[in-house]
Design a protein that fits this description.
single chain; 66 residues; mainly alpha; 2 helices
């Protein structure tokens, strides 16, 4: 696995997982909304793909450390 891909995964997956937990479990809990298996099944892959896109964007456009 290339170093660039490792950086994308290292940045993107934790961000995507954090957003998944926050927006699928925590916010609905405090708003008294139902947390269903269907919502979880839809949200998880979407947030993981979103996390990978976020990781790619951060790797692509942020200045590199030297």
């Amino acid at each position: 696995m290339s170093n660039k891909l490792k950086q994308i995964l290292k940045i993107g997956l934790p961000w995507g997982f954090g957003m998944f937990v926050l927006l699928t479990f925590i916010f609905p809990y405090f708003n008294d909304e139902d947390i269903t298996l269907k919502k979880i099944g839809i949200a998880f892959p979407l947030w993981m793909v979103g996390g990978l896109l976020f990781g790619y964007a951060m790797n692509r456009w942020l200045p590199k450390e030297k």
